[in-house]
Amino acid sequence: QVQLVESGGGLVQAGGSLRLSCAASGRTSGSYAVGWFRQAPGKERELVAAISWSGGSTYYADSVKGRFTISRDNAKNTVYLQMNSLKPEDTAVYYCAARRTVFSGTTRRADEYEYWGQGTQVTVSS
Asked: How far is CA 115 from the centre of its chain?
């Protein structure tokens, strides 16, 4: 089993920045692809960004491209989501998810992820 814990959420003004962290513990040996999802009230969960197990491949939703950056430090079992130029529409609960895989690309389907964190709230005020 792998446990994921998100941190770094909070309240920020529009145009500001936050960095989310997703720390993994437990059975972390092996290769894990990671994704960041978000869900706003009344909306479906959506994939924001994803990174391959090596960090060599990344994916961004069009809505965050150029503003968000996903990265990972495998030595620390941690994946980051740097969020810049935040907008009120970025307000949501952000979740990280992990999937054990040897696939070199990113994983984009939520149902392919095995492990999920509890989420961290991000609120962007206008």
From this structure: 12
